[in-house]
Amino acid sequence: MYLRRATTADLPAILRIVRRVVPLMQAAGNFQWEADYPNEAVFRVDIEREQLWVAELEGQVAGVAALTTDQDPEYAQADWDAAEPAVVTHRLAVDPEVQGRGVAAALLQQAEQLAAEWGLRSLRVNTNSENKATQQLFPKLGYRFAGEITLAFRPGLRFYCYEKRLDAAGR
C-alpha cells in the first residue's frame, strides 16, 4: 500500500469511491453522507490545502481521507480539550472492493505520522452514530470514545467522537 497526498488527477477515482460508498452507508442506516456531500468542490479545497491523502493498492486509489487540524465548533461538546490542537480525520472513505484490507487503518496511521511531524499529541475523528464499522475500527486502533455530539451542518444526526492520545515521542 502506498500513501500520498492527493492531486486533482485523483478526483475521478475519489468521486467514484464516494459514489460507491454512499449507497452502502445509507442502506445500513448511516446518512452521514448524501449524493451531494462530500463533493468535488470539497475535495478540491482539501487538495488545494494539501490535506487530502489517498491510499493506493495495486496502483489504484483505494481510499481517501482529509487529515487536517480543523475542528468543528461542536467538538467542544465532546470529552476532550477542544482548545488543544489535534490532527482530525475527515471524509474517510474506502472503496468497497478493498474494505477489510487495512486501507482505513493505513490512512489513520498517516494521521499519526502527521501528528508526530507537527508536534501534536492528539488525533480526533467523529463518525455517524449508525456507522458500526468505524465504531469497531477506531477502538481497535487505540482511539477512545469521547462522547456524542451534534453538527449544525448535519441536523438530525448524532455523531460519536473518538480520540487517540500520543505520548511525548509521538507514538
Describe what is shown at a glance.
Helix content is 30%, strand content 27%. The protein has four helices and seven strands, in the order βααβββαβαββ. It has helices at 11-27, 40-48, 103-118, 132-140; strands spanning 2-5, 52-57, 60-68, 87-94, 122-128, 144-149, 159-165.
Description:
This protein is an alpha+beta fold. The chain has a single domain, classed as 3-Layer(aba) Sandwich (Aminopeptidase), CATH 3.40.630.30. The protein has helices at 11-27, 40-48, 103-118, 132-140; strands spanning 2-5, 52-57, 60-68, 87-94, 122-128, 144-149, 159-165. The longest helix is centred in the N-terminal third of the chain and has 17 residues, at 11-27. The protein is globular. It starts with a strand and ends in a 6-residue tail after the last strand. The mean pLDDT is 93.
Number of strands: 7
Fraction of helical residues: 25-40%
Strand content: 25-35%
Strand order of the largest sheet: 1-2-3-4-5-7-6
Task: Give average pLDDT, whole number.
Answer: 93
The computed structural class is alpha+beta
CATH topology term: Aminopeptidase
> How far apart, in Å, are the first and last alpha carbons?
21 Å
- What is the approximate shape? globular
Number of domains: 1
CATH superfamily: Gcn5-related N-acetyltransferase (GNAT)
Listing every helix as H and every strand as E from the N terminus to the C terminus, the arrangement reads EHHEEEHEHEE
Please tally the helical runs, counting DSSP H or I stretches of 4 or more residues. Answer: 4
Protein name: GNAT family N-acetyltransferase
GO molecular function, one term: N-acetyltransferase activity
Domain N-acetyltransferase: 1-167
Keywords: Transferase
